[in-house]
Amino acid sequence: MTLIVALDASSSACSAALLRRIDGQPDEVLARFAQTPREHTRRLMPMVDEVLAEAGVTANALDAVAYGRGPGSFTGLRIAAGVAQGLAYGLGRPLIGVSTLQALALSGYRSHRYRYMVTALDARMGEVYAAAWRIDDGLPVALVDEAVLPPERLLLPKEHEDHDWVGLGSGWALWDQMPAELQANLNLTVVDIDPAAEDMARLAVQVFDAGGGQRPHDAQPVYLRDQVAWKKTARKRAQ
Question: What is the Cα–Cα distance from 74 to 56, expressed in whole angstroms?
């Protein structure tokens, strides 16, 4: 049996989930999800405690801890990473960071069987965090790298434009600023959807089964905007 707890605070929502995998049986997932702006620190660990209690297990039974590594709210990512690191370190378990954009894509597939999706989160400052995905064997596979960019630069992967595309996430609230070419190729957009720990647990168990995971002190949230800024600085220094 494999037990993985996942937690997320990357958006205005706060969530926790416990996945139990027993060979030959469908995965069982217990989850908590709530819109709790500015209450993530107070709500996250109680949610973890609730799913553990509902499953009738203790934290010592866990095989790994997963968390939403980003992109997303800077403050929320730090909160989730800190709680997950503390839990994994105290238990001596591996830590698995899961993409919030990939989790959104998995949610779209599980709920509606969408197969080609662009997940986008509002990054503030007139930008979005975005990536494009296709479903392969029930899991989202990235077609382009995750990026932070102005909405007017968001485009579909050229070689996959003919598929039925769906846009998921808060970034699609900036629809009016997106290119007409992109708008013409999208069948549907769903704005009111947030990353959830339930989908992160389902992705994390795949990583765990493949031998993945990090030591708790090595895990870092993913701030795409910081990465872009670093690359620009590095290029300037190299000139």
Answer: 33
**Summary count for the chain: helices (H), strands (E):** 6, 11
Using DSSP's 3-state secondary structure scheme, residue 214 falls into strand
What's the pTM?
0.92
Q: Which residues pair with 226 in a beta bridge?
A: none
pLDDT digits (tens, 9 = 90+) for 2-42: 999 999 999 999 999 999 999 889 999 999 999 988 889 99
Give start and end residues of each alpha helix (H) in the chain. Answer: 40-55, 74-91, 100-112, 180-184, 197-209, 224-238
66 closest CA partner among 98, 44, 27, 41: 98
CB 116, CB 108: distance < 8 Å: no
Residues 6+ apart with CB under 8 A from 112: 166
Cβ neighbors of 225 (< 8 A, separation 6 or more) are 71, 123, 127, 148
Please tell me the total number of residues recorded for the chain in this structure.
Answer: 239
Token readout for 208 is: 């765990």
Distance from the Cα of residue 148 to its chain's centroid: 15
Residue 239 has pLDDT above 90, yes or no: no
- Hey, what amino acid is at 204? A
Please write the tens of the pLDDT for every residue from 95-139: 999 999 999 999 999 999 999 999 999 999 999 999 999 999 999
Burial grade of 59 (CB within 10 A; 0-12, 13-18, 19 or more):
middle
CA distance 4 to 204: 8
Pairing of β 116-124 and β 139-142:
unpaired
Residue 72 one-letter amino acid: G
